[in-house]
Amino acid sequence: MADKDDFDKHIKMDIRHAYACNSCEDVFAMKPEQTIVAAGFVMIGLALVYTLFHGPGYDGLPVSINALPAQGAMQSQHFITPDMKRGFVSAGAQLYEGHWQGLEALHLTDELKKKLGLPMSLDGLLIDEVTLRSAVSGLLAGDVLVAVNGRAVVTLKDLVRESRKLKNRDNASLTVIRKGASMNFTLRGDGPLGFAQVETAPMIRPGAIMPHPYRGECTRCHPIGATGHIVPDPGGVILPPPPIRAGAALAHRDRGPCAVCHLIIN
Asked: Cα 149–153–157 angle (5° rounding)?
């Protein structure tokens, strides 16, 4: 059996790095003499995909990813069919982020621990954004949430479970790790706290190029389709507030200190 080095010797590229693949962990399981033939099939497949998405018969609708029956070494390859108008969401898709009273939490993966210089032994949820009541409570982006009301949270499911117990209360104790120190904060709501909401990674189009080191199935984290985003994204076309001169008269109702939104010119 050829290993990855043998495959690279003949193909000269990692297909999973150049093109997205929803289940290609077995693509290297072939003999050296099969690789040239496999390369031919890859090129034919790419041509078919291009025709499907750019040819005269393509109607612009989202398409789904479906698995071919197992056929030896090529059992993990997929084909694309334009038969689903609402995209595809795997029943086993993993949760990606959670939201609760203004905090956004992610799984603290080994990759994130390395990038942020955190101990590999640390378990919890990375708070990567705070707004609303979470910001008022004193939480900061970069904190690692390790407990809610004294009960450990390691996964997003833990966060949902513990927050459900507090959904009718107006406060909760959150324990975080910040710069190696354990700190406690009280999260207070304007009313009942409710419970955390979770979601998968964003929807991606079939054939999207992978921007991250993970090279497993795209469907493990992402829904596949073209219905998950507004095009164009309003967040990308709304311009920032213009600069204003110091002492300028308000052009709108009072929304707080002008410097919060505007660059002040003397």
From this structure: 115
Model confidence pLDDT, tens digit, residues 66-104: 443 443 333 334 444 445 556 777 888 889 999 999 999
Same domain, 157 and 111: yes
Does one domain contain both 177 and 124? yes
**Is 70 exceeded by the pLDDT of residue 19?**
no
Identify the domain containing residue 221 by its residue range: 1-87+207-266
pTM, full prediction: 0.57
The dihedral sign for the CA sequence 113, 117, 118, 124: negative
> Which tokens in the block code for residue 121?
């032994």
Q: Is the preceding omega at residue 232 within 30 degrees of 0, hence cis?
A: yes
The percent of residues in the chain predicted with pLDDT above 70, rounded, is 64
What is the number of domains present in the chain? Answer: 2
